Amino acid sequence: MGIASHGNPLGKAAPLVLAALLASSQPAGAQIDYRNLEDDRPALIEDAYAIERHAFELLAPWRYGRERQGGSTHAFVPEIEYGILRNAQVGLKFPIAGARTPDGRDWGLSGVKLFGLYNFNTESRSLPAFAVRADATFPVGSLAGEGTRVTVKGIATRSWGRNRLHLNGAYTLGRDRPLGAAEAAHKWWYGVAGDHTLFRQSILVVAEVYALRSITAEPVEVNASLGLRRQITPYIVVDVGVARRLRDAGPDYEITFGVSRAFAVAGLMGMGR
Fold first, then answer.
1. Could you tell me which of 64, 136, 135 has the C-alpha nearest to residue 97?
2. What is the dihedral of CA 8, 22, 46, 132, to 10 degrees?
3. Is the pLDDT of residue 35 over 60?
4. CA pseudo-torsion sign 187, 256, 107, 141
5. How many Cα neighbours within 13 Å face the side chain of 265?
6. Nearest by Cα to 185 from 217, 213, 210
7. Does residue 223 have a pLDDT over 60?
8. Domains of the chain, CATH where assigned
9. β-strands 88-93, 79-85: how paired?
10. How far, in Å, CA of 180 to CA of 187, rounded?
11. By 3-state DSSP, what share of the chain in percent is helix, strand and coil, each rounded to 5?
12. What are φ and ψ of residue 225, in 5° steps?
């Protein structure tokens, strides 16, 4: 199902559209959203907490990856999240990829992802916070791969003052299929991350290491990344990060940059006036 191809303006126009939405939406009020560690923002690993009930958040991350063999991929992944229940959120992602081919760079939609996360418990003296997340990836777009894929993830978070430790593990059900160019549903992965909060600067610093296998026939990758999230206004957060392979398989390097903005339902409806 082709949505975009080489030379299509979708890939170039999408960042401008998301920037306009981010600028025009109304704030949802003061928050410390920079501590909400989301997947790929800027680390692969996320924390076990959902966004607040009835809160909306619009995210616009960009990632560039360079492979050891010389290939490279741009990925722009607009996303919207909604706190549907107390301790539960749902969301949609529309990854747009720019993959290098022998004929140049091919831009296209790399699937559509629907996900939900539920936090079973907050931390106690004896137990960490624990959540389960499920993602359904649909093969929509010219760079989406083949077949619908369902991924289940377990998430745990433990805090010690300004420091937190996170454990994630994910597995994709079903047989192997060709993957999308961006936001691929890997066969399995697991990893650990630690973060530290600098409250006076509204900054979260995070480091992680993780292992993954994209499909059964591919070698296992072991990668590490560093990143930070900074809250620049009560409702806007920016993040930056860099990742590197620790073995022969994996990205030579990846860099990421993202921005997110919380907004209210009334503010979203007012955009059309």
1. 64
2. -90
3. yes
4. positive
5. 6
6. 213
7. yes
8. 10-272 (2.40.160.40)
9. antiparallel
10. 13
11. 10, 55, 35
12. -150, 155
